[in-house]
Amino acid sequence: MQKTLTTNATHTELKAMAIATIDEQTNRIVELSREIQRNPEVGFREHGTAQRLVEQLEHMGLDYRTGLARTGVKARMRGRSDRFTVAILGELDSVITPDHPLADPDTGAAHACGHHIEIAAMIGAALGLQAVMEHLDGDVVLFGVPAEELIDVDWRLSLRDAGELEFVCGKPELIRLGEFDDIDLGMITHPGTSGQESLFEMDHSWLGAILKKVRFHGLTAHAGENPHEGINALKALTLAMTAIDSQQETYRDEDSIRVSQLVVNSGDMVSTIPGTTDLEVMIRGRSVEAMQDASAKIDRSMHAGAIAVGARVEIDTVVGCFPFAQDEPLVEVVDANARTLFGDSEIDSHAGAHGASTDSGDLQMLMPMVLPIVRSGCDGLIHSKDYQIDDHVLTAVNNAKLLASSVIDLLCDGAANAASVIDRSGPKLTRDEYLTIRRSMETKKTFG
């Protein structure tokens, strides 16, 4: 039986109480992680996952709101004062990996990115924090957020065109809706890839991502009888791809520009000059300015391919997410707690740059954000058919302890640490400023 805390309990006593509570709830946390892992759902369609989160919140006696950006779920735990609010986030969605052993046979969805441990860790941290909230000088928001992965884009664009959403990823859409206006700091965790020496990595950065849907319009003709009367949309696409490759030396190394391409439609049949072809292009970069520069160069390349053969090209540009460079003052808080919990040798404090992307970068433009990665308990390469979470204690339960301990440090003693982190993290964008930048980069252009 746990002891009762005094009114002036120290942060060490509060953490001990929270961690003891999490330990008592280990089986519940692990089972939630496994249940979500067995029932994957892709972004903006995570209705079952959202319901599982709702059941946990109801069991904790918390009020909540649902249906945020289609499937998001948000609850608030109140402290003894509301000076600041810290959000613990968990991503609801999966990726599509049809050959994964736990893939949904109908949709191909699979938790080959490990988001299920985020939801379990969030609930685990909440269970620990619920035992000490009356001693904290701030609130904690639990936020199940949809659609972190930039997939299923055609369907999401159909939702945009129907007016059901504006942005194709979950956190940007929730920002637009004002759902982060009442939050001051954010925390989220993520599993990593196996084969790493340390248990956790900190202070890494992620690239931003832009997606272009490109369609070339030519003129069909018989490929043998009268090809000279056609306009070959496939040739336009091929020339455009060559122009894209020719841009590579114009990118600065420090901007980490990565351009990937996929021919979605190359024509209807080999005996006909293709009249319509489709290309998808993804641009990743380490700064908004670098992404904007690369986007303009890709548009020029598309235009060049069309001009060369007399075709027309339509380019629909959507922003997936912005670059993510974590806020060092908040990293310091989480890093210190990780070292206390797991030992110095288990923490890689300066993990460096990642080549992947996350829409937590959008949120970091508005508030201090941190994203520790747990490396142990994972097996296989992330996003592959072999990726599995083998140890839900090392991943979900350990993360719950780290998140809860870090929140306590931020919100105890008058929330002095939260105030310091916000001040030292420097100026952030307002929601309107953020939306202006994002909307300026989402364009529809036609050339030819």
Automatic annotation (TrEMBL):
Biological process annotations from GO: folic acid catabolic process
A Gene Ontology cellular-component term: cytoplasm
Keywords: Hydrolase
Domain Peptidase M20 dimerisation: 213-299
GO molecular function list: dipeptidase activity; para-aminobenzoyl-glutamate hydrolase activity
Signal peptide start and end residues: none
NCBIfam families linked to this entry: amidohydrolases
PANTHER family documented for this protein: PEPTIDASE M20, PEPTIDASE M20 DIMERISATION DOMAIN-CONTAINING PROTEIN
Name of the featured protein: Amidohydrolase
Lineage: Bacteria, Bacillati, Actinomycetota, Actinomycetes, Mycobacteriales
